[in-house]
Amino acid sequence: MYMRMLATLICSIALFCQTQIAFAQPAPVGYKPDAGLAKAVRNAKVINTSYPIRVMRSGKEVMVTTLNNPKSTDKSFKIDAVLVAKALMDADKTVLIVHYRTKESMRDPEVQAIVVKQSDVMAYGVNAIKADTLLDELRITKRSGKRAL
Fold it and tell me: How far apart are CA 99 and CA 102, in angstroms?
C-alpha cells in the first residue's frame, strides 16, 4: 500500500514537473562516452544491431543517440526510449534521466528526442500508471542545429 502511494506521488510530481530539458538547446558540456552503459543498451536488444549507438554520460544523465528506424512510429519510438532507459537504469542505479535521440545519420544535426525520467519508469514498474498513460506523457521533441553530438 505504502509503495503504491509513493509511486503515485512520484508519478504526480513527474507529471507536474514534466520538463522539456533536453533538446531546446545543445547538449550540455561535460558529457563523456560510457562504454559500460553502451554495452547495457546493446544487451537490451532494443536498437537494431546494425545501427551505431553513442552513449554519453554527465553525472546522473545519459544521452543515447542512434539512427532513426524508418519504420518507427511515434508510439514505437516512445517504447524504444522507455526500454532503453529501463535497461540503463537497471545497469546503473544512479542514472535518473535518459535522453533518447535518433538521427537520419550520426553526423546529422537534426534529432528526434525523448526524455525519460527514473520516476516514469518506476511509476510504470509498480503499476501506478498504465503503459498508454506513460507513453502519452512522453513528449517527442525535434531539434535542428549546427552542433551534432
Answer: 10
> Which of 100, 78, 101 has its CA nearest to residue 89?
100
Beta carbons of 64 and 99 less than 8 angstroms apart: yes
C-alpha cell at 28: 550540455
Residue written as grid cell 538547446: 25
At residue 28, the 3 state secondary structure works out as: coil
Rg over alpha carbons for the chain, rounded to the nearest Å, is 15
- pLDDT per position as a tens digit, 113-141: 999 999 999 988 887 888 899 999 999 99
Query: Is 19 part of any domain?
Result: yes
Distance of CA 5 to the CA centre of its chain: 25
State which residues form the domain around 91.
2-143
Q: Classify residue 31: in a domain, yes or no.
A: yes
In a domain, 149, yes or no: no
For the four alpha carbons of 45, 112, 138 and 25, in that order, the dihedral sign comes to positive
In a domain, 148, yes or no: no
Indicate yes or no: pTM above 0.85: no
Q: Based on the structure, what is the number of domains in the chain?
A: 1
Question: What is d(CA 28, CA 93) in angstroms, rounded to the nearest whole number?
Answer: 22
